[in-house]
Amino acid sequence: MSLDRARAKLRSALGATSAIRQPARPALDAIGYDEIEVELDAAQSACWCWMNPIGAPSFTPGLLRDISAHQMAIRESFAEAAPEEPPLKYWVLASRLPGMFNLGGDLDLFRGWIRAQDREGLRDYARACIDVLHENAIGFDQSVITVALVQGDALGGGFEAALSCDMIVAERGAKFGLPEILFNLFPGMGAYSLLARRVGMAEAEKIIASGKLYSAEELHERGLVQALAEPGDGVAETHRLLSRNLRRHNGLSALFRAGRRVAPLLYDELRDITDIWVDAALQIEESDLRKMGRLTAAQDRRLQTGGSVAAE
Prior knowledge:
Layout: H1 3-14, H2 16-19, E1 36-41, E2 46-51, H3 61-80, E3 90-95, E4 100-102, H4 107-115, H5 119-137, E5 145-150, E6 153-155, H6 157-163, E7 167-171, E8 175-177, H7 191-199, H8 201-210, E9 213-215, H9 216-221, E10 227-229, H10 234-246, H11 249-262, H12 267-281, H13 286-305
Parallel strand pairs: 2-3, 3-5, 4-6, 5-7, 6-8, 7-10
Antiparallel strand pairs: 1-2, 8-9
């Protein structure tokens, strides 16, 4: 499936066209979004995308819609710019939610679709997730270095979103995990593909099958987190990282592009895995759905109190 067809599918499935207010000549920071905030840093040639989902600390349909629209604006900005004057060199994905990066899939939606045996609903949501993940993973087909700033828990799809970036900056104490196995599923929106390319298939399967939480420090030791920051210092540390690397951006971006050539992440691979995920989701039992519900309740309490999901 082409990128254009994937984007069209996202717009159709999530109603993006009617909800996005897009000017005739889109500027990266001049589009009104509902669930992200975009900031440009001209000094570092960086664009910051701050996630701020409404209603749930997860990849809501609105958040997916807004990120997709933002990604299209980035592509259009490159198309309009002179080759020697790219509109940006870095793209940073971060979160406005205190103590949370993103807690993954919208579990309330999942439960409803599974109980209704709604294959199309599950498939459309999964495809919308991989649409935005794949665009991150290929750096918008430009020499953009993508960075995830993780200042709190990154679970399920949140972990997948961070892994889709070239580099991860994480504050000490941040937790990463793929809890899907706890309710008899697996993370079907990129985790296996991304982890296998970074740590190998055996280690990827071990991480996914464990369902455990990993600290930022543990993942730094494994090479999955490239830079550690003290709690509360993540933004400043990311700025320092960008400043240190600005003069060698050409070499680093070429290095990451070479990595994509050595181990290309094909959209078809992600799509086929989402089909496996949908089939598996439709087979889970009511007891598994109750476990999913308890995790949803824990996430809701976390959103209200700022407590740790890990403690639930």
